[in-house]
Backbone:
């Protein structure tokens, strides 16, 4: 079970530490204090994960069972790499038999068994590059992508929602039947068109706020389970074209 970490100091840090007032801006000092006192940050260090984000994926998996049986995984927005670390483990991915591909425009330090692409996922060439590197059909697409913050909340929100949408279209175009898609979104932010796309093509669509996601953050996750398959997507597209043609004739 993914337990809520207690205030233990096995990492050598005590919970409740303060950062001395000095040259730092108050907001930066508050961020550092929150970070070093965050029990999930400390637990990530102890367990060898590169980010506290690991516990969001593990918590979601514990409740919704998305990792079990996954043979090939794509990790969108992979840096610094904790989700890819988990993905490599569950797929038994090795350098000889790569089963995980991660992409980020930031550099990610190597993770055994993971091919890491340093490029923008919104680049037109990204989908092809990911699929070439994976050399097989994924049964899980996970996206923790968040747009770099501009300081303008609404802009940041819209840009992250756009990433979620592009990730969803990508997942629908590459997933194996029965596969799952997990992506970061925002509270109240999921567009109707995106929800419709997922509801049409997956058996179940759920919004999740993991306990390890900071309470003050508006971050949520969108989980679409049980992809209905590429044939279903093609049939839906053909039906939509028929409808348009009928409307034209009317
Ligand atoms: C919250 S972090 C991901 C943490 C990661 N899941 C982990 O466990 O280590 C979000 C990442 O999304 C990446 N990102 C945002 N927009 C992107 C884009 N267009 N293409 C590639 N990566 C992107 C950022 O660079 C950032 O590293």
Residues:
């Amino acid at each position: 079970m993914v337990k809520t970490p207690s205030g233990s100091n096995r990492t050598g840090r005590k919970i409740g530490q303060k950062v001395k007032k000095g040259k730092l801006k108050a907001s930066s000092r508050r961020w550092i204090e929150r970070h070093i006192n965050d029990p999930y940050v400390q637990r990530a260090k102890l367990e060898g994960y590169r980010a506290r984000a690991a516990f969001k994926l593990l918590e979601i998996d514990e409740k919704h069972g998305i990792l079990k049986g996954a043979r090939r995984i794509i990790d969108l927005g992979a840096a610094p790499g904790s989700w890819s670390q988990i993905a490599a483990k569950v797929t038994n991915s090795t350098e000889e038999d790569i089963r995980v591909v991660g992409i980020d425009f930031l550099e990610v330090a190597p993770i055994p068994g993971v091919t890491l692409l340093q490029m923008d996922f919104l680049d037109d060439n990204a989908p092809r590059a990911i699929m070439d590197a994976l050399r097989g059909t994924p049964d899980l697409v996970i996206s923790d992508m968040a747009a770099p913050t501009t300081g303008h909340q609404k802009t940041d929100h819209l840009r992250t929602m756009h990433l979620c949408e592009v990730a969803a279209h990508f997942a629908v175009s590459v997933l194996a039947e029965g596969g799952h898609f997990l992506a970061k979104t925002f509270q109240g932010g999921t567009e109707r068109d995106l929800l419709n796309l997922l509801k049409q093509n997956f058996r179940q669509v759920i919004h999740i706020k993991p306990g390890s996601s900071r309470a003050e953050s508006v971050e949520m996750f969108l989980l679409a389970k049980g992809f209905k398959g590429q044939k279903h997507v093609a049939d839906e597209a053909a039906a939509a074209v028929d409808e348009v043609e009928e409307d034209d004739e009317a």
